Amino acid sequence: MIEPATNLPPTAALLLIDLQKAIDHPSWGVRNNPGAEENVARLLARWRMTSRPVIHIRHVSRSPESTYRDGQPGVEFKDHALPLAGEPIVTKHKPCAFIGTRLEAMLRERDIRDLVIAGVITNNSVEATARVAGDLGFRTIVASDATFTFGRADFRGVFRTADEVHAMSLANLRGEYADILATDEIILRSYT
Question: How far apart are CA 177 and CA 139, in angstroms?
Fold first, then answer.
């Protein structure tokens, strides 16, 4: 990972990961960060106001039982994260937004070196994308309060709350792959 900049340059891109209606399906269970959507909306408003690049990552699952499968309402973007005309949409079929997509090429073509990641699921697509971004040399920030996840059993079968899963995922990323910052700090860094 490249050392994080104190302030975000005008080219810093906001990657919005999998913010689709599928994530609201009750089958996912109990989530954390109930204010995540509000924080995503704040980041999105700030990026648009400062004309920074916004890239929407859309997951389309190939699994027939997924809430993210194509051809059903879950694949649609959530209202607080609707793309505007001209904002690129990258469709992925794997957790990582770089695998099987043109995301890296798009970022390199635009000379984008700084990424802010928000969206879902912290320990899945957010973590996978942030890890690869860090490995590819992008200065990466994950918005700790503009991401969320769900409770789940660990490898030994012990149930972990959504807050515990979220905190461990962010701990996995911190330092080697990304900076972990709250929305207010990210917005503060966007004043350049």
Answer: 8
